Amino acid sequence: GTPAAQQTEEGCVSEDLSGAERTLAFSNWPQYMDVDEDDESRRPSLDGFVSRTGIQVTYTEDINDNNEFFGKVQNQLAACQSTGRDIMVLTDWMTARMIRLGWIQKLDRSKLPNVEANLLPSLRNRPFDTEDQYAIPWQSGLAGLAYNGRVTGEIRTVDELLTRPDLKGRVTALSEMRDTMGLLLMSNGHDPTDFTAAQFDDALTKLRRAVDSGQIRRFTGNDYAPDLAKGDIAACVGWSGDIIQLGFEDERIKFVVPESGVLLWSDNLLVPNRAGHKANAEELINYYYDPTVAAQLAAYVNYICPVQGAQAELEKIDPELAANPLIFPDEAMLAKAKVFMALDEQQEREYETKFQQVIGA
Amino acid sequence: MRISRWLAEHWVLGVALLVLGYLFLPIAVVAALSFNRPSSRLSYDFNEFTLDNWRNPCATSEMCEAVLRSVQIGFLATVVATVLGTVMAFALARHRFRGRSGLNVLIFLPMATPELVMGTSLLALFVSGGVPLGFWTIVIAHVMFCVSFVVVTVKARLTGMDGRLEEAAMDLYAGEWQTFRRITLPLVLPGIVAAALLAFSLSFDDFIVTNFNSGTTVTFPMYVWGAAQRGIPPQVNVIGTAMFGVALLLVLATSLAHRARAGGQRRPAP
Amino acid sequence: MTVDPQTSAGDLRLAHLTKTFGALTAVEELDLTVPQGSFFALLGASGCGKTTTLRMVAGLEEPTRGRVLLGDRDITRLRPYKRPVNTVFQSYALFPHLDVFENVAFGLRRRGIRSVDGQVRRMLSLVQLDGYERHHPAQLSGGQQQRVALARALVNHPQVLLLDEPLGALDVKLRRRMQLELKRIQTEVGITFVHVTHDQEEAMTMADTVAVMNAGRIEQLGAPAEIYEFPATAFVATFLGQSNLIAGDVSGGNGGDLLVTAYGTRFSVPSARSRADQGPVLLGVRPEKLRLAAAAGQVPAGHQHVEGSITDAFYVGVSTQYLLRTGWGTELSVFVANSGAQERFAVGERVVAHWDPRHAFLLGRQVDEDDRTAPMRHEPVGASW
Amino acid sequence: MTVDPQTSAGDLRLAHLTKTFGALTAVEELDLTVPQGSFFALLGASGCGKTTTLRMVAGLEEPTRGRVLLGDRDITRLRPYKRPVNTVFQSYALFPHLDVFENVAFGLRRRGIRSVDGQVRRMLSLVQLDGYERHHPAQLSGGQQQRVALARALVNHPQVLLLDEPLGALDVKLRRRMQLELKRIQTEVGITFVHVTHDQEEAMTMADTVAVMNAGRIEQLGAPAEIYEFPATAFVATFLGQSNLIAGDVSGGNGGDLLVTAYGTRFSVPSARSRADQGPVLLGVRPEKLRLAAAAGQVPAGHQHVEGSITDAFYVGVSTQYLLRTGWGTELSVFVANSGAQERFAVGERVVAHWDPRHAFLLGRQVDEDDRTAPMRHEPVGASW
Amino acid sequence: MSAPAHVPTASGEQPASPAPAARPGRHRFLPYLLLLPGAAWLFLFFVVPLVQLAAASLYDPAGSLSTGYALTWSFDNYPAALQAYWPQFGRSFWYAGIALVLALLMGYPLAYAIAQKAGRWKHLLLVCVIAPMFTSFLLRTLAWKTILSDNGWLVGLLRDVHLLGPDGRLLATPVAVVLGLTYNFLPFLVLPLYASLERLDRRLLEASSDLYASPLKTFRRVTLPLSMPGLTAGTLLFFIPATGDYLNAELLGTPNEYMIGNVIDSAFLVRLDYPQGAALSFLLMSAILAVVFGYLRNAGTRDVL
Ligand SMILES: Nc1ncnc2c1ncn2[C@@H]1O[C@H](COP(=O)(O)OP(=O)(O)OP(=O)(O)O)[C@@H](O)[C@H]1O
Ligand SMILES: Nc1ncnc2c1ncn2[C@@H]1O[C@H](COP(=O)(O)OP(=O)(O)OP(=O)(O)O)[C@@H](O)[C@H]1O
Ligand SMILES: NCCCCNCCCN
Ligand SMILES: [Mg+2]
Ligand SMILES: [Mg+2]
């Protein structure tokens, strides 16, 4: 057999080499960092961090999907080995799992004054990290629908996405169970914050039908974006910021908040065990909680910014963006946005397995 | 009548050319895109001709590092696998010993095992052994799946070789080592070169096994995989096209060199 | 077949040489001396152990027993590359990746000789291959390849050159040419040649000494004409050239002659040409020694004769070959040169075959052995092939 | 060399058959009739177009011009698998993946014949391979393979069987055996055999008709003895058997004889044996037709003679071959059968070579042509090889 | 004749040198020495992991990451895995099989033409078969994605000639997956086949046509059987990786085309169900081996590789 993957603070000690090595390995999702319009190899906010602190950042966009990424690093973390990354960005539920497994290093709050000052209250003291010492939000966002108006007409509802004949085979959904199933639960009139197993099964049946009929081409991670942009995919389940970014290049690509509701989630900055540069990571976290930096980032990625005061800063750069409810959600938007309920290990396994079976793997 | 006879004799060539066309079709797309200035980062359509990508193939340093890394891994894996495999091929072709058939199975099995299975099982080994994943675990894995191909290729060449040549060399005052160095090795060399080329192409192109055993190390195929998820920089196509060209030149050069050594066309029998 | 007592410094001697492969004895207690500088031919049926013998001399095979000596030096256990012996292999075994020059230079280079150029060129010119230095073996004709193989061996000035059917793969015409060439070169360089061949004519025309091997042993050894004219055994008589052998019994003596009775007829053979002087014998006459006459009256005095009828006749240009059925039912074969002088006979004609008793020879015979007819040139030699 | 006007239903006729490969003309305007049921041999130097001719008959090569007819049927453009013609290939081309039985059955099965068993077994027994049905070609000796190839072709009862040097790869001994075998089988089955060979002896002993080809054309065609005894051209005289050719000029006639002056000496040749009756000629005598005498006085009446001294002598068992230097400096070659009756001569001795004029023949000569000596058996035939 | 009585010894006899002259005893251990490094490598990095994987396939399926997995010899994992994923299983063999047929239809003429008809272009053509392997597998597959894309010229062309309906697609269909499999593994089929066809003696083909076999019959009765060793080796080298592949299905297909490789991939990397992943891996391997040995038996050439 294999031993449990559970680690403890005492059992798996990480050494911080930040004093000697001014470097940082940063794993993130694609389209989650501002890029210079003229020179795509430059990332202004990150470059700002480098010049401000002298810490060299190796920035890798190698997270496409929470599960996929977990699969990549779990062997090392379970064995208390370095993943080669100092900081990484994962969604709430995955963050919760990692913390539960003891794979995440505790941050030194004293080195995060900006976080202390500017983290949105709604994102503090969350159940999986009651003292905000493991996971600091990077961005929040919405999971909803998107379409490319160049190749199809407008889409308003989840049902349209799953059944409209002209979309057959040109639709993708997310392999992120909570996003896809959350939308389906809501389209069935159920509440993703609080649903029963039967309700889940109903939603899953609906999904299966769409898969079997060939309506859904693929279940994707973040990689739906290029296909949607190209028009290979007419419509999909996607994440707000990505779509808005695509919309800048082609205004016919639109994000849709279905009437039945959207999913709200946050991605968090995490320092895994055996990461050698925790202090450098803390400097980075603190840097991004500077409202001007946060605004710079938000202006590009168009996700929901967790930093108080960023909206004011953004107003200075781009007032139109600052008023976009998808970036700084208003009450109406928040009413439609639901957070997928927390699952215990047993539930998670059960629902994941069922979901995976439907999405074909 | 004559036309039908000509057709009867040449249609195969026609089909072969069509199939070659099929083999080259995607390469042509890759090559074309290497001259493309994409309309946007996420676009993969041919937009506008440019030489920029070729002038500046390292737009992203990750990509060029990945290419370099893949070449290094490919080189190391090729050298090790070729040495190990060649030596094994010699033992198998030239000696009778106990356990031969078992060994043949051991060599055949990796070729009969889906890459996925090899990748996952090897990963489990590294993790349970506490071996940090990275460059060297990739090399180890690549050597493992290349060795069998090398053995098979070299062995075929060796068994086809006339053993009397070695006797003739010994008769002509060449000791064991000299015989090996002057006769056996040069004669088997084309087989070894072919095996090495095969090994390199297998290693350079591997995604599945590498993906499982790479840790955070990124090889070129893995870079392409990742890039495909977020929009491929056109320079990737430059690398792809260049590798194709290099392969063409390399293989062509070796076969020309070989032909030159063998001394051209065989004379018709007297 | 015993070791020659007086041997010179460079003679090749095999003493009690034996080689067994598992249960099979390929070479059995071979004793043999090949005088230095001679052209020695080893003849024998397929599988009789010729190649094995040569391989032991070359060091490519280790003898089970016995010794190989060069002069007084025992080389039995020397590795092949340490022996002053070279081989021309049947299939030439030219190195395909080396050109003609490098093939020939191979042995010299292996012995650490630096300036090989002169020697190689001289050797290539000896075998008339000047200008072919940069050709590769695949670009040469069979005859040219053969000469490269020869040059490659000769350039080393070995004490002994072994030739294992070097002409076996050539067509008849080329073969004849190469034979002369080999002989010329051997005369020129004066090295000991040990030549293995299947072809008796080849052995006879080229060698100073011929050894006829049978089942791992040597049956007879001597000058070609000596063996041909007076073979020691029935095997030799039929293997080297062809013979009509008539089964009979010695019935007495008559001065220098032995009397033999066969099928009720009496024949005489000079005792000097007899290998047996009593009991069952085979009376041998070579087909070209037999002559034909239309009637017994035309038989020259002193000749012996047998009557019969022609059952077959073959015109082969130079000669005509007849098959004659004797009164007692077996057949004799007669070769008559087409010199224009002889009468022609037709199939069915009754004729008399006659011969000078001095051309006959007498061999010992196993009791159950029967007559043997010399096969005509175009007749199957044995039943099984 | 022209088409035989009266042809029977099954004759193989080649009419103006021509094949060019690029600039090279391999076969040139060949006209030839091979009578049904005959054993026809095609002889010629390497590269003269024999194989190409056969391949056109088999349908494996398409003629550039001309026609191939079987009886009255034009088969020039018929695909090979539709012709009643089979080939025994030089290398046999046996199917290595099929056993002997299946090799032989191949053609029958392809023609849709179901019960092949009896036919195949009968054929195997004809070539004496009963019991070898389940052997694979790799397990057979060369001679056995040859017979399988033969059986595989014969079992189809083709109208014409083409044999392209089927014996070329065999060693001399086996070759002789196979020749007889082939002849026997042809006599038995009565199929037309067209046999290509390099070996003139082979052609002469086996064929009813021999055609000598040279550079894409046929030089002479006829019964073997006819061609041998009275060749039409110098090429034929030296290619089929061997000849001493003496350059001279016709100096007049004398009854039924022509008088030839060569080197100041007068010789006569019956006009019936002359291919030219004026101008420069070659006087031909075959070496076995020459006889040796110690002195001019011993030359029989009516014989013509040349004096000279022996420069070389080869003992080859059946015969001894002498080289004689004539007074005018060229050489003659003389074969003397070792029948025991003839005197032996030593190198250096002065002798007289003589012949019956009826054994000489006369050929036309190019003005610049010189003497040619029949090569001795063991002398190089040409300068370049 | 002054013969060199002594020849300088070739010094430094190497263990790696083969000794054609059989010297009993001399090289008894040499083969083992030669085999040791390679065999050890394969043993350590192939056999041992495989055994480990075998053990993993028998873990308690109720185990989890946080609790760990216990080896409970749960053979039930096998039927359970098969039951859950037999469609993907079947599909793997089905797609690989169709791809094999296509590859044979394309690869045989190609190999044949190169070996027998190409004359002096032989080497160049052979290079052309190998060279694409140097352009990344992924790049080529992505290129196929572009070629087959709904808005691409190919689909447009096929729609124009009505081989595809107005809404017809190529990408994300079984056709695309099978095409991708065919494409990617074709060189592995062609190379051994070529080696075998190159050795084919043309004279045998002539003999066959001389013996009344039409070109088709000649192919069926002579060419095909004689190329069997290469065909067998090529078939295996094509079929095995094709069956276990998941990238083509992933990139060119939809969940409806997913093969067993996709399932194993997700079992190991996404669902983290090691027992099931391992069990599926072993099921796949044994299925492949069963097919292979069944095939080898029929092909009659055991000694292909
Ligand atoms: N390595 C070996 N192992 C077993 N038997 C062998 C070996 N080499 C030769 N023999 C056997 O020894 C006998 C003599 O073989 P050898 O090759 O010396 O014959 P040969 O006279 O050269 O025949 P050929 O004229 O056919 O070449 C044969 O019966 C042969 O099969
Ligand atoms: N396919 C071909 N292409 C070009 N030239 C050819 C071809 N086949 C034969 N030739 C040439 O045609 C001539 C006649 O060849 P062919 O094979 O008929 O000769 P051959 O009489 O059979 O000779 P051999 O006795 O050597 O077999 C030769 O010069 C040969 O080189
Ligand atoms: N381009 C950045 C997308 C980040 C998505 N994070 C995953 C959220 C899952 N609910
Ligand atoms: Mg031998
Ligand atoms: Mg020919």
UniProtKB/TrEMBL annotation, chain B:
Mention any Pfam family matching this sequence.
BPD_transp_1
Keyword annotations of the record:
Cell membrane, Membrane, Transmembrane, Transmembrane helix, Transport
Gene3D superfamilies per record:
MetI-like
The subcellular localization recorded is: Cell membrane
Segments spanning the bilayer are: 12-35, 73-93, 105-127, 133-154, 183-204, 238-257
UniProt main location, coarse: membrane
Can you list the GO cellular component terms from the UniProt entry? plasma membrane
Per the record, membrane topology reads: Multi-pass membrane protein
KW Methyltransferase (keyword) present:
no
List residues of the ABC transmembrane type-1 domain.
67-254
| Cross-referenced InterPro entries | Bact_Polyamine_Transport, MetI-like, MetI-like_sf
Please name the SUPFAM superfamilies in this protein's record. Answer: MetI-like
Question: Any one Gene Ontology biological process term?
Answer: transmembrane transport
Q: What is this protein called?
A: ABC transporter permease
Report the source organism. Answer: Verrucosispora sioxanthis
From TrEMBL, chains C, D:
Q: Do you know which SUPFAM superfamilies this protein is assigned to?
A: MOP-like (SSF50331), P-loop containing nucleoside triphosphate hydrolases (SSF52540)
List the Pfam families hit by this protein, alphabetically. ABC_tran, TOBE_2
Q: Name one GO cellular component term.
A: ATP-binding cassette (ABC) transporter complex
Q: Where is the signal peptide?
A: none
Q: Please give the start and end residues of each transmembrane region.
A: none
The cross-references to Gene3D superfamilies, in alphabetical order and at most eight, read: 2.40.50.100, P-loop containing nucleotide triphosphate hydrolases
Question: Which keywords appear in this protein's UniProt record, sorted alphabetically?
Answer: ATP-binding, Nucleotide-binding, Transport
Query: Does the keyword section mention Glycosyltransferase?
Result: no
Xref: SMART domains: AAA (SM00382)
Q: Does the keyword Transport apply?
A: yes
Residue span, ABC transporter domain: 12-240
A Gene Ontology molecular function term of the record:
transmembrane transporter activity
Q: Which domain of life is it from?
A: Bacteria
InterPro entries tied to this protein: AAA+_ATPase, ABC_SmlMolc_Importer, ABC_transporter-like_ATP-bd, ABC_transporter-like_CS, Mo/tungstate-bd_C_term_dom, P-loop_NTPase, Transp-assoc_OB_typ2
| Name of protein | ABC transporter ATP-binding protein
Read off the lineage from the record: Bacteria, Bacillati, Actinomycetota, Actinomycetes, Micromonosporales
UniProtKB/TrEMBL annotation, chain E:
May I have one GO cellular component term?
plasma membrane
Is Transport set as a keyword in this record? yes
Region of interest called Disordered, as start-end residue ranges on this chain: 1-22
Cell compartments where the protein resides: Cell membrane
* Family annotation (Pfam families): BPD_transp_1
Q: Which UniProt keywords apply?
A: Cell membrane, Membrane, Transmembrane, Transmembrane helix, Transport
The UniProt entry's GO biological process terms, in alphabetical order, are: transmembrane transport
Q: How does it sit in the membrane?
A: Multi-pass membrane protein
Record domain ABC transmembrane type-1: where: 89-293
Entry's InterPro entries? MetI-like, MetI-like_sf
Transmembrane domains' residue ranges: 32-55, 93-112, 124-143, 171-195, 222-242, 278-296
Lineage top rank: taxon? Bacteria
Family in the record: Belongs to the binding-protein-dependent transport system permease family. CysTW subfamily.
- Put simply, this protein is called ABC transporter permease
